[in-house]
């Protein structure tokens, strides 16, 4: 029955196979879904021109809550019994509800195979919801709006029951969050399309979580499947890094400041480093991780998305399609890296460490014996266009490292004709710290205060913790889920972006899988393999180690 249904939908869409070009043409044509009560691009521009999180939140209240035309919304959590649902999705919905950011008539329905009662589901989620004292009544009110339907992922009758539960809420917009394993993805989406779509003037939006395939072919299969069922503007592919404050800030920083545009190019920038570091290993989830490895888990999506925002040309507007068109152009200018552009590592236990740190990746009982899956990778990508030719973009990510950190480091070229004796002049570096403790700082030379005329390293510093003391910084999922309510796709991945991301990484991934190069061992809690630092030098990133920041506890701010 599913096959037949799929064929029918495909037949409807002429060829049934949606090519890369077709994706691209279609998404370039389709305008962004407008905010409730407003026309598309204008409203989106308005949102993007606001900088502070507080302003954004109050604007959202205006736009979504008060201009929601009184429409009912049902938020469906598909896979409601799972890890993502309990740790991220339910807590996020609760925070949005608590802060009054959701449209007034929003209901929540969880769906999964487990025969759970609502109190049992509530018990699973509560530990992650950070309910504060005094919020007990509100949390009760939140759960009163929640229902749970148990059903299979492949029986249409079960989806009919789900549809009935939705219909009991009246005519409503429907937002399906697919917090599901890839194995049930196809049958669930087929059933949703068959029996659970909204009717009349109400919309249906589908939020899709990664993994979006595991290489170009599987990702294309998934994209074609989804394109046969839903319109691109109904699909929201989440990359939660696009919901982070400092990642969203990249556009404003680059295009809202006159000082950066003239220097943002190969004439002035020596190299760009985009880093992700985590201080813990696979924590017993190595079985899952081993199927993907760090390149698929973090680099191909989060770090590459950040790269596109650093490297893209200025879009004509902040309309989602204009931004995503520019991001795709950057990706199209990147060739696949080969093994000379790569350092791979795998963590080993630290005999002197405590707790988890004693165990290496291969000590995780869920990891296959002798696995060569990398838990650390440094890759140099080259954006071969007029702006960036010759500027390496060094992407680096790893688990079980010495700290939690995500940052972008734009290192400028050496000052020409240095007049200061003793080699004191160091390269400028613009650092955008994504997490923890958001900050933007420019490492720069200044005269040593006092009688001397020496130059010394100092900084221009925008530390969010001190500059925006009372601003509540929303979590990435809060922003992104609200975006879905509002119909804004700016911070979601379009199908052609996904295509290009896999095109870049698939040859390398296949090579690694075939040749099984042994990753370089690095000790749990270290900075990764020393070879990665050598690699940085080779790709024109100069580390002097001389810069000193006066506040010793800066990274804890
Ligand atoms: N607003 C704020 O909060 C500000 C905070 N600071 C803080 O000051 C401190 C120093 O600033 P930062 O810009 O990091 O200064 P540095 O240029 O000294 O960079 C230090 C970082 O360089 C990396 N590194 C170490 N050895 C090498 C190597 N051989 N090759 C390449 N990279 C290497 C390390 O990070 P990795 O292990 O990731 O490679 C290290 O953390 C940081 O803690 C920073 O957060 C500074 C300015 C403003
Ligand atoms: O997507 C993923 O991201 C998390 C890190 O997210 P963060 O917001 O905590 O930085 C990572 O732990 C996980 O392996 C990866 O799949």
Automatic annotation (TrEMBL):
It comes from the Eukaryota. Its EC number is 1.1.1.49. PROSITE patterns: G6P_DEHYDROGENASE (PS00069). InterPro entries: G6P_DH, G6P_DH_AS, G6P_DH_C, G6P_DH_NAD-bd, NAD(P)-bd_dom_sf. Pfam families: G6PD_C, G6PD_N. Residues 20-45 are annotated as: Disordered. Residues 77-249 form the Glucose-6-phosphate dehydrogenase NAD-binding domain. Keywords: Carbohydrate metabolism, Glucose metabolism, NADP, Oxidoreductase. The keyword Oxidoreductase applies. It catalyses: D-glucose 6-phosphate + NADP(+) = 6-phospho-D-glucono-1,5-lactone + NADPH + H(+). Residues 20-30 have a biased composition (Polar residues). Residues 251-543 form the Glucose-6-phosphate dehydrogenase C-terminal domain. Pathway: Carbohydrate degradation; pentose phosphate pathway; D-ribulose 5-phosphate from D-glucose 6-phosphate (oxidative stage): step 1/3. It is an enzyme of class 1 (oxidoreductase). HAMAP family: G6PD (MF_00966). PANTHER family: GLUCOSE-6-PHOSPHATE 1-DEHYDROGENASE, GLUCOSE-6-PHOSPHATE 1-DEHYDROGENASE G6PD. Belongs to the glucose-6-phosphate dehydrogenase family. Catalyzes the rate-limiting step of the oxidative pentose-phosphate pathway, which represents a route for the dissimilation of carbohydrates besides glycolysis. This is Glucose-6-phosphate 1-dehydrogenase. The gene is LOC101849615.
